[in-house]
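Q: what sequence does this backbone want?
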């Protein structure tokens, strides 16, 4: 029902725009017809005056002899030049024009309308960005081969194993880190920059995700506690409960959006620049709070050294 209502509203907007365009064009076309009619009348007048001048000259040639012609032509030529000048002045096509002032106002108003439409579209982009939530990464959960920026807004893989305390919340095998903040209601959206990377995983997870040992449940999306999208060697795969969902092949994206909706029980992944949907999971009802989860991946033959960066999204 909601989908049909939205479609109807878009159709009404399109109808209003089409009708306004039709009315504007009808006015412009009417003025164009008036201008063309005026030009046609000027051309007819021009043609009539030229014919009169030609007839005057012909009569002079017939009536006067050569000597008289020279005397009269001098006088007549002056009169002819004056008539030609008058003809050019009174039949100048540039004297016929459209109402340029009104046309300029129409252009200004249509530009304003375009700016307004741009400011309100794409509507889904405005809505999703309004759900942006501030997060920072929790270094206490980061695998010892992950470097977390001082502000907690990026994570980078390093070959060096850092001497960090092996506390219960730290991932010790999988290259994961989760956000300090947890969310348990409402709508939340994050964007991450994965430019230049050949391998990464990102998504959301319950705080109960396994963090120790080599069990597959420690990997994002491999257990029931987490949802993720993985990029590896040009392939995108969505994961949950160990089930892979191969996504259509596409160019390497620079920004990935993650949207979670507690009212709908949805986790949705997007190509953030154009807000193109990639994959959506329906959890029905979330059983716990959710953390943002990132895995920058290993160095992958020396080609995956770029960090994953959490973007500051303007709503």
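A:
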């Amino acid at each position: 029902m909601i989908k049909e209502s939205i479609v109807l509203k878009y159709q009404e907007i399109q109808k209003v725009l089409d009708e306004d365009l039709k009315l504007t064009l009808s006015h412009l076309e009417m003025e164009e017809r008036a201008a063309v009619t005026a030009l046609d009348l000027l051309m007819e007048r021009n043609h009539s005056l030229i014919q009169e001048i030609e007839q005057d000259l012909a009569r002079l040639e017939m009536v006067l002899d050569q000597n008289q012609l020279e005397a009269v032509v001098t006088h007549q030529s002056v009169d002819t030049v004056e008539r030609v000048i008058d003809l050019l002045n009174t039949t100048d096509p540039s004297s016929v024009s459209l109402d340029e002032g009104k046309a300029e106002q129409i252009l200004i108003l249509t530009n304003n309308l375009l700016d307004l439409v741009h400011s309100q579209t794409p509507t889904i982009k405005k809505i999703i960005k309004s759900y942006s939530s501030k997060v920072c990464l929790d270094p206490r959960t980061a695998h010892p081969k992950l470097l977390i920026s001082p502000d907690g807004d990026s994570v980078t893989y390093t070959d060096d194993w850092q001497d960090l305390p092996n506390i219960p919340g730290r991932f010790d095998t999988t290259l994961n880190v989760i956000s300090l903040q947890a969310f348990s209601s409402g709508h939340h959206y994050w964007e991450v920059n994965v430019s230049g990377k050949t391998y990464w995983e990102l998504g959301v997870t319950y705080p109960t995700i396994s963090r120790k040992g080599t069990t597959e449940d420690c990997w994002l999306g491999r257990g029931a506690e987490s949802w993720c999208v993985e990029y590896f060697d040009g392939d995108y795969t969505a994961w949950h409960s160990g089930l892979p969902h191969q996504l259509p092949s596409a160019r390497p994206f620079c920004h990935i959006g993650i949207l979670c909706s507690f009212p709908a029980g949805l986790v949705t992944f997007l190509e953030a620049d154009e807000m193109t949907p990639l994959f959506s999971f329906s959890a029905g009802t979330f059983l716990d709070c959710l953390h943002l989860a990132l895995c920058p991946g290993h160095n992958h033959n020396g080609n995956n050294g770029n960090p994953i960066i959490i973007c500051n999204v303007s709503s």
